[in-house]
From TrEMBL:
Span of domain HTH lysR-type: 1-58
Keyword field: DNA-binding, Plasmid, Transcription, Transcription regulation
Protein name: LysR substrate-binding domain-containing protein
Source organism, top-level taxon: Bacteria
Similarity comment: Belongs to the LysR transcriptional regulatory family.
Presence of keyword Transcription: yes
Lineage of origin: Bacteria, Bacillati, Actinomycetota, Actinomycetes, Kitasatosporales
Organism name: Streptomyces camelliae
InterPro entries: LysR_HTH_N (IPR000847), LysR_subst-bd (IPR005119), WH-like_DNA-bd_sf (IPR036388), WH_DNA-bd_sf (IPR036390)
Record carries keyword Hydrolase: no
């Protein structure tokens, strides 16, 4: 029994496919199949059910999987311990991020890490705050930049962006003549927002609920820049962060929403810590490169025209 065979078995189960497993492992598909069959011959049991559309573990396969994963984790832990002892940082780190964050220069953060640790491979995945939190909790991400919301247990955070939720409108929109409005001014307006599960959408829903009405979401888009561009075409009122709205001026006018929830971005990682030195180095670097902001209160009312 070889570690390679165990790794191939675990990867095939996770991907539910020999082809996808081979792609992930960067080896030829026949090689993966041959190694798994060799392992089955050695154990005298069929470990994978190949009869359906997807590959699934048999009862024997389910029985061996915990031991296979434990063996692979032990080897990875041994390598990480030696790397840490010798001061060598290598391996792979996985970071998740929202599709667009106008206030954070993520490429520069990752470039700075790469300059310090050129032997570490960096992978980046995008998704909603809800999805990223689940991936982080499951250990499939080492670090995540996500919107504030309900986080799973065991996740530590640092506030790295804290902005006002604002209304972005076409310059000809009547709201563009105002500096400030209350959320109630949006009651009968078509609104443009990110999908449910994102931090900005949670802020928008909260603001409308506090004003006593259900928002009329006319358009949704997964890209915050697209949300703002819809508003620039006069299709509705975009509810976005202040930095995002300012980035699209003069195509849109920015209107402050008084007493609105804050749009926050959190740097998040597992509190019990990742196993590898590369992931720990990434977390240290990101925490130092990005500001640790205090949590601000909602926008307060100021003298000016409101509705």
């Amino acid at each position: 029994m070889e570690l390679r065979q165990l790794k191939y078995l675990v990867t095939v189960v996770e991907e539910a496919s020999f082809t996808h497993a081979a792609t992930k492992l960067h080896v030829a598909q026949p090689g993966v199949s041959a190694q798994v069959r060799q392992l089955e011959r050695e154990l005298g049991e069929t470990l994978l059910d190949r009869s359906g559309r997807g590959v699934r573990p048999t009862a024997a396969g389910e029985a061996i999987l915990p031991y296979a994963r434990a063996a692979l984790a032990a080897v990875e832990g041994a390598r990480a311990s030696i790397d840490e002892l010798t001061g060598l940082v290598r391996g792979q780190v996985r970071i998740g991020a929202l599709p667009s964050m106008a206030s954070i220069d993520l490429p520069e953060v990752l470039a700075g890490f790469h300059r310090r640790h050129p032997d570490v491979d960096i992978s980046l995945a995008e998704g909603t705050a809800e999805h990223l939190a689940l991936e982080l909790h499951a250990g499939r991400l080492d670090l995540a930049l996500l919107g504030a919301g309900v986080l799973p247990p065991g996740v530590a955070t640092q506030v790295v962006a804290d902005e006002a939720l604002v209304a972005a409108v076409h310059p000809s929109d009547p709201l563009a003549r105002r500096e400030r409005i209350t959320a109630g001014a949006l009651r009968d307006r078509p609104l443009i927002s990110l999908p449910t599960g994102t931090g900005l959408r949670a802020c928008a829903d909260e603001a409308c609920a506090a004003a006593g009405f259900q928002p009329h979401i006319a358009l949704e888009a997964g890209d915050p820049h697209m949300v703002t561009r819809f508003a620039a075409r006069g299709l509705g009122v975009a509810l976005v962060s202040e930095s995002l709205a300012r980035a699209h001026a003069p195509e849109v006018s920015t209107v402050t929403i008084v007493r609105a929830p804050r749009a926050r971005i959190l740097l998040a990682w597992r509190a019990d810590g990742p196993a590898g030195p590369a992931a720990r180095a990434l977390i240290r670097h990101a925490r130092a490169a990005l500001p640790d902001l205090p949590r601000s209160r909602p926008n307060s009312s100021h003298p000016g025209q409101e509705s």
